[in-house]
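Progress note, sequence design subtask.
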């Protein structure tokens, strides 16, 4: 059996990739999230926009491809920093095309984003997961922080779950390697005491 994930290459997205990324997002949301949300709500979510082009400009949004075919995307952004250096990063907009779902591509994209953020000095990661994406993030060591809603322009909201985790001390000393295994959640703060962060585009990947 072919290991599909081994065929995937991940590279920084560029402006010319935007149309393909947006089409990928639409396909992903309409199929992979359909069992958790109404079609009407999903269409309103898509109409609000699913891609932060600022991440592409910053070089922190990535495109997963198989022989040049876009199969997934995802990235990260800095949230805040302490006086002694970077601290929190947010995983952003992880999507996998439904044709290529459940082949480890979502996992590759999340780990890639975590690794790049860790290389930049960030030790804590957080995200807003759609209900369809929660199993993936739990599998990767994220813990639930809060059930909330991603606000839509019409005043309604898409139910999402805020999740977080942190690098272990050993990984921090080694320079940060999520591939080597991450802590189940922040050690310094309990999930109940974490400050809620402003809403950002949810990570919607539903694959492992």
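Output:
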């Amino acid at each position: 059996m072919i290991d599909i994930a081994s065929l995937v290459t991940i590279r920084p997205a560029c402006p010319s990739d935007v149309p393909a990324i947006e089409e990928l997002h639409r396909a992903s949301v309409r199929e992979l999230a359909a069992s958790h949300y109404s079609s009407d709500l999903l269409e309103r979510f898509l109409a609000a926009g699913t891609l932060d082009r600022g991440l592409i400009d910053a070089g922190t949004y990535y495109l997963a491809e198989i022989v040049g075919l876009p199969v997934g995307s995802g990235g990260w952004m800095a949230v805040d920093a302490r006086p002694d250096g970077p601290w929190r990063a947010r995983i952003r907009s992880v999507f996998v095309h439904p044709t290529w779902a459940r082949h480890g591509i979502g996992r590759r994209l999340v780990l890639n984003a975590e690794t790049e953020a860790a290389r930049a000095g960030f030790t804590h990661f957080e995200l807003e997961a759609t209900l369809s994406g929660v199993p993936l993030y739990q599998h990767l060591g994220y813990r639930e922080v809060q059930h909330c809603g991603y606000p839509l322009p019409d005043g309604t909201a898409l139910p999402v779950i805020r999740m977080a985790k942190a690098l272990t001390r050993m990984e921090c000393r080694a320079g940060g390697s999520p591939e080597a295994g991450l802590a189940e959640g922040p050690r310094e703060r309990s999930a109940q005491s974490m400050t809620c962060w402003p809403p950002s585009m949810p990570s919607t990947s539903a694959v492992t």
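The chain has six helices and seven strands. Work on this subtask will continue into the next period as scheduled.
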